[in-house]
Design a protein that fits this description.
By secondary structure, the protein is α/β, with parallel strands linked by helices. It contains 11 helices and 29 strands. The chain has 2 domains: about 280 residues, Spore Coat Polysaccharide Biosynthesis Protein SpsA, Chain A; about 110 residues, Hexapeptide repeat proteins (UDP N-Acetylglucosamine Acyltransferase, domain 1). α1 packs across α6. It is globular, with a radius of gyration of 23 Å.
Length: about 425
Amino acid sequence: MDNNDRFTLAQQTMAFVLAGGRGSRLKEMTDVRAKPAVYFGGKTRIIDFAMSNATNSGIRRIGVATQYKAHSLIRHLQRGWSFFRAERNEGLDILPASQQLDETNWYKGTADAVTQNISIIRGYEPKYILILAGDHIYKQDYSYMLEQHVQTGAKVTVGCIEVPKAEASAFGVMAVDENDKIIDFVEKPADPPTMPGDDTQALASMGIYVFEAEYLYEILEKDRPDDESEHDFGKDIIPAIVKQGGAYAHPFSRSCVLSGLESEPYWRDVGTLDAYWQANIDLTDFNPPLDIFATDWPIWTYSELVPPAKFIHNEEGRRGQAVSSMVSGGCIISGSSLYRCMLFTGVKTHSYSQLEGVVALPYAEVGRRAYIKNAIIDRGVKIPPGLVVGEDPKLDAKRFRRTEKGICLITQSMIDAL
């Protein structure tokens, strides 16, 4: 198929983004927001990557299923993703769990989230449905996955990330034949099956699935009354199709988007504090593994109207400066120094403070003479003058959420308890 054929397939597709999960491994960061709504990369949210991939792939009909602490996510989608035009058969539907089938309103599983919204999906009359997880960081052209789905005649095509065999035990792993047909699906295997022709790599599910719409409706309606089912794609729907011989794998490397600066496919689950911190700090590298500056595959988001960042004071020990850092609009770096930091919108750092390896979420404020190293500062937190974080592991662990790798999460309630 050529580009026009893939674009036609994308136009016939609706993307359904599963964005209801809390992401409990992010601890207090998800006390007030769902994981897909967590800030990432200076000005975006995690969900913006799946949404941007769909939009850039030519898919302009998107449904987002929300559930846990959904207010900030819904507000973000309304502000940043309201550019779809109904007269062009485009649209964004935000789909909270809302008693559509019976008196119980919570989504029972990922498949049930789709089942409860079949009537809404039907209204768009899609030929294909693309199921996406809303909580991963990556760039992918889904039209290539749609193309493979049509060419193989698959019942379901499963997006898979190639991982080293030694790391694959942490994932659901696909065993495939030389034609990408999935012959077995094993959850967190001790001895993961490897890819044909490469015994060092395994295929792990990305939680991305392509179905023909009518087939998906059929299997979901069959699954809905089954009391033995957990109504989940990964646990119930996909394994059943694998047994029937209708599932195919799509390796991420075939459709990942590389800008020219990126040396290899990039996909991250930022579901732990360590992974979240690392993925943000990675962006400050001279050649970051993920290029968010590329204009040919933009990451769309809601951008606040704020003034440019400002750096002030120029005295020894009191110089507003940043090295190997990303500083967003509205920030004021007042006589303080930053090294390998990611500052989101509106962060203020006061004189003589020093930050190293800090991810500061919007409108955080760092007081005078504070020293913060290897930390995540939650939105709006006010760091008191003189606070030291990153020097004494035992003291840090008493006061803040400290990981085994030494990353501290700092929230306002933790500061208030000092």
